[in-house]
Amino acid sequence: MHKKDTVNILFCGIGGQGVLKASEICAFAALFEGFHVKKSEVHGMAQRGGSVESHLRFGKEIFSPLIPKGRVDYLVSFYKDERDRLKDFLKPEGSDFIEYLEKSGKFIKDKRYINIFLLGVLSRYLAIKEKNWLMAMEKLLPLKYLEENKKVFFKGRGIKSA
Amino acid sequence: MKKDLCGRVMLLSGDEALARGAYEEGLVVAASYPGTPASEILESLSKFKEIDAQWSINEKVAFEVALSSSIGGLRSLYASKHVGLNVAMDPLMTSSYIGVGAGFIIVTADDPGIHSSQNEQDNRLIAEIAKIPLLEPSSPSEAKLFVKEAFKISEDFDTPVMMRLTTRIAHTKENVEIGERKEAVQKEFKIDMPKHVMVPKNAYKRRLEIEKRLARLKEYSEASPLNRIELNDKKIGFIASGVSYLYVKEMYPDASFFKIGFSFPFPEKKAVEFSKKVKEVFVIEELEPFLERKLKELGIKFKARHPSYRIGELRPEYMPDIIKGAEKKEEPGTTRKPVMCPGCSHRPVFWALKKNKAIVTGDIGCYTLGALPPLGALHTCLCMGAGITFFEGIKKALKKNVVGVIGDSTFVHTGIPGLINLAYNKTKGLIIILDNSTTAMTGNQPHPATGYTIKGEPTKKLILENVCKVCGADNVDIVDPRNAKEMEKLVKKRINEDALSVIIARSLCRLIEKKKYKAPLYKKENCKKCYICLSIDCPALTKSVDGFINIDEELCVGCNLCVETCSFNAIVKNA
Fold first, then answer.
1. Residue B443's closest chain A neighbor by CA?
2. What CATH number is associated with residue A122?
3. A39: which chain B residues are within 8 Å (Cβ-Cβ)?
4. For chain A, what is the domain count?
């Protein structure tokens, strides 16, 4: 029953980590690629250090804005406890990005760029052209930090495996 | 709104899409008070120069400004969260009597699951008791489409129209096709006392009119394409509205559906017709059994969720259990608790209240987080404005050590009448206005005491200290709460004084004023591990595995409140 062409990504972490920004960039990249996109999240408490999760789905036609439990293809977590809380959402053959998070210190020094680093890693798995990723970043990141962000993105994109 | 890179398709949230739709349909006046998940509707509308958008001081005012603009002849829109509509209940209930001039839309954004609210009411019921037609889009793109229909219904039937979003529609983004704005022709305002002056005789005649209108609306709802039968596998036919429709469709894409977009007046004939075409009818809806009751009245045989699913929001993975008739398994909440920002100016106020052993009546805003452990320094929270009015009752009972707290935006919203009431009824005691000069929790919107409009233009600034004085406060002190000692002393002085006092604890919100100072120094050798410093619930302070304290210099902004809490010179100011 599950439409095979749908990609389901669950971004999670805590307020202030850039979870929503990462999801937004990925959503725009998918939009530029021509997919039907749905991205669902809860605002209000996001800047107060509470749990933050963003459901991102794209494909030919998306119905539910929430990814059904057990159907997440990529669980992109920015915080270990949140990943543990949501790991049941991952489907058996899905990819858990926790290893990339844990090893991210090897690749980037500034913790504030973790979201873009993980997005770079994620980009290797998705059928979205590089130019659309770049266009999405240009649209959503402040010009001042754009070059540094792009550098970090390509660092993530270049990683072979965790 | 600026033209997007991708031309005619934009990625918009339900709130933004609804705003875009209203803009394209020639909306002229929009009014609201911020509240999650509705805030982004007005924020989006304020970006269009053609639209006269405003943050009103509260929802009742917003509703009346929008409705009267419509009576005057301009297309208008009111938006708020579900509980915001309660504040506007008085004008809402009679708005169906008075009708409209140009199209008037009421947007309610409900919050199933109580993500960011004080209750979980289902405003579909309000549409019914207010006798106002109700549209329920399922997605952002539908929210945009439905606005067009809402304006048409409003003008054709001379009625306000309610559109209901829920959190998962308001805060979902999807591809939305955009178009050009069509200016709506301003309707002529006609003096019409029998319709516009609701005195008993006129109101009775209008009451008769309303019932005739509802009958006509019912016929319209029957024929509306917003109520759509999708015949597929006829073994099971689902009846659903709003986002619930998408959850079932996700899990059972091959089933038949009666998708309801125009849910009040309910399309009865179409429901009967659908029920005859499928073997089994199953109703799926979030919160109250609104559709279930309609089908029951019609005598249609159907199955529905176990009543335990009326509480909380639905999720797609619940569908198989719901269809089995299973009871909902309540999962223990494991989400991380939110916390006030490092350096937040509310924290030292709660510290001062704690030191004074105050019973604190609270209100709605970031400072409601003061109730959570380990701070635990706020003891009631009911609704907007009740920080002051609850103070009055609790003070009557406890006689002393009671303090009411309220935010600056909330004070303007509904706090002022409470303060006048205290003075008028000779109540003594202490109210603290937690003035961070913004509406912080909902995303830093301006309000009258900031001196700026929704469009960022300077305007007349409301001076809170003057307001407090004219309301009847005997003492009005203004203090920067980051000066923790002074704050604590002032609370001590005023709390049980034989006078009505207001302390305005004024310090700009940390999310706006981003200045950072040096983090304090930790002297491990002096630390007695008493952990009093942790009781202020600062995210920058944590207990290490060895039992000592760790100060996260990246998070710390150098407010030095923790220095005040330490009696052993283990945390000291970094000069």
1. A44
2. 3.40.920.10
3. 11, 172-174
4. 1
Contacts of B38 in chain A (CB under 8 A): none
In the block, tokens 């009708």 appear at: B99
Chain-chain contact of A40 with B168 (C-beta, under 8 angstroms) = yes
Closest-CA residue of chain B to A84: B334
Q: Which residue has the tokens 């945009």?
A: B144
pTM of the model: 0.96
Residue ranges, comma separated, of all CATH 3.40.50.970 domains in chain B are 9-223, 346-506
> What is B346-506's CATH superfamily?
Thiamin diphosphate (ThDP)-binding fold, Pyr/PP domains (3.40.50.970)
Domain B9-223 has CATH 3.40.50.970: yes
User: In 10 A of CB B259, how many CB atoms?
Assistant: 21
Residue B284 pairs in a beta bridge with B240
| CB pair distance less than 8 Å for B11 and A31 | yes
Residue A39 in this model has a pLDDT that exceeds 50: yes
pLDDT along chain B (575 residues), means of 10: 61 98 98 97 98 98 98 98 98 98 98 94 98 98 98 98 98 97 96 98 98 98 98 98 98 98 98 98 98 98 98 97 96 85 96 97 96 96 98 98 98 98 98 97 96 98 98 98 97 98 97 93 97 96 96 93 97 93
B58 touches chain A (CB under 8 A): no
Confidence of residue A46 (pLDDT cuts 50, 70, 90): low
The answer to whether B371 faces chain A, any CB pair under 8 Å, is no
Tokens of B524: 């491990």
Over residues A14-27, the pLDDT tens digits come to: 888 899 999 999 99
B355, B377 Cβ separation under 8 angstroms: no
Specify the DSSP class assigned to residue B56: -
Q: For position A1, what pLDDT does the model report?
A: 36
Q: Do B336 and A81 touch (CB under 8 A)?
A: yes
Q: Is residue A10 within 8 Å of residue A89, measured between CB atoms?
A: yes
Q: Which two tokens stand for residue A92?
A: 């058996």
In whole angstroms, how large is the CA radius of gyration of chain B? 27
At B544 the three-state DSSP class reads: coil
Fill in the DSSP letter of residue B6: T
* CATH classification for the domain delimited by B521-572, as one of 3.40.50.300, 3.40.50.1380, 3.30.70.20, 3.30.300.70: 3.30.70.20
